[in-house]
């Protein structure tokens, strides 16, 4: 189920990125677009932090957001790279490793421990939360919110389920 849920995350992220690219073409200087980029920036940073934690590497960021938010092109490349890495990780991790724990320090200095499975679930859930905020900003800014629910995904991937 976790692999399927991650496939859903990748699909939903791609739909959101496409909606952001469309909105950028219409209102690149709007406060709504600045908010959307900030949400995406935070989402990407969190994914990069947890990837480093899964790999036992040094944290690549000192905080979960930045003062200067990269442009949409850079954020798209980074999120795409995060999703490709996680998809590969899920393909190659031995099933027995899902329950192994990872101890780390959050950006605020608090200590944490999660299983690898919990980290991957967190990334799926965290992205859903922030895509929702981006979707709301798209609505408020006059953009087009993509249909990105799991039911839309699974019925698109497996149309026979509509029978």
What descriptors fit this protein?
2 strands, mainly alpha, 163 residues, 5 helices, Four Helix Bundle (Hemerythrin (Met), subunit A), two-stranded antiparallel ribbon, flat
Secondary structure: helix percent: 55-70%
Low-confidence stretches: none
Give a quick account of the main beta sheet: strands, pairing sense, barrel closure. Answer: 2 strands, antiparallel
CATH top level assignment: Mainly Alpha
For this structure, the CATH topology is Four Helix Bundle (Hemerythrin (Met), subunit A)
For the termini, the CA-CA separation is 22 Å
* Rg over alpha carbons: 16 Å
Assigned CATH architecture: Up-down Bundle
Mean pLDDT: 96
Please list the strands of the largest sheet in the order they lie side by side. 1-2
Task: Give the tally of structural domains.
Answer: 1
Number of helices: 5
Structural class: mainly alpha
Overall form: flat
Number of strands: 2
**Strand residue percentage:** 5-15%
Order of helices and strands: HHHEEHH
């Amino acid at each position: 189920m976790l692999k399927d849920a991650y496939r859903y995350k990748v699909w939903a992220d791609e739909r959101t990125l496409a909606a952001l690219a469309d909105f950028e073409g219409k209102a690149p200087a709007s406060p709504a677009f600045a908010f959307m980029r900030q949400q995406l920036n935070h989402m990407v940073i969190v994914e990069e932090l947890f990837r480093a934690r899964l790999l036992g590497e040094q944290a690549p960021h000192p905080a979960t957001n930045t003062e200067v938010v990269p442009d949409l092109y850079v954020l798209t490349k980074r999120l795409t790279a995060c999703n490709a890495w996680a998809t590969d990780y899920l393909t190659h991790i031995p099933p027995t490793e899902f329950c192994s724990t990872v101890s780390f320090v959050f950006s605020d200095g608090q200590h944490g421990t999660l299983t690898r499975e919990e980290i991957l679930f967190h990334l799926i859930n965290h992205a859903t939360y922030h895509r929702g905020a981006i979707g709301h900003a798209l609505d408020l800014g006059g953009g087009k919110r993509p249909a990105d629910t799991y039911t839309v995904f699974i019925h698109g991937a497996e149309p026979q389920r509509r029978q």
